[in-house]
Amino acid sequence: MCVFAGFQWSLHGRQATVLLTLLTVPPVLWYTVKAHQLCRAIDPASHTVGWVPVLITTFVLSPFESGLILPAKNLLAANKLLRTCQREAKAGSPVAGRPTKARQAPGADTR
Asked: Could you tell me the CA-to-CA distances from 97 to 50, 81, 100 in Å, in that order?
């Protein structure tokens, strides 16, 4: 968007660019919250961003910054969880492959 404004596009070009950008931000924020929910299902203490920080950041900063910063934070937290699970699996931990109560399907065998 900044490139288009730098080239001094016509008013309609800038409006179209802003509109396209605003149309792509809500799905990004929705997937950010979905990643938060998945990370919290695996590890309730994970440092991810949910709905409240997403909404506050979107209104305080702008939708553009919240669409870049918050997904990056959740992806870094998910990467940390993945590395921890891989390390436990390599170490041969008997609990590594077993789902926690938060991840178990309803009615699943808990043996």
From this structure: 26, 14, 9
Max CA separation in the chain (angstroms): 66
C-alpha span between 111 and 106 (Å, rounded): 14
CA of 12: how far to CAs of 9, 45, 53, in Å? 8, 47, 33
CA 3 from centre of chain: 26
Cα–Cα distance between 65 and 68 in angstroms, integer?
Answer: 5
CA atoms within 13 A on the CB side of 90: 6
Q: Is residue 97 in a domain? A: no
Confirm whether 48 is domain-assigned. Answer: yes
- Cβ of 39: how many Cβ atoms within 10 Å? 23
Query: Is the pTM of the predicted complex or chain greater than 0.70?
Result: no
| pLDDT tens per residue across span 94-105 | 554 455 555 555
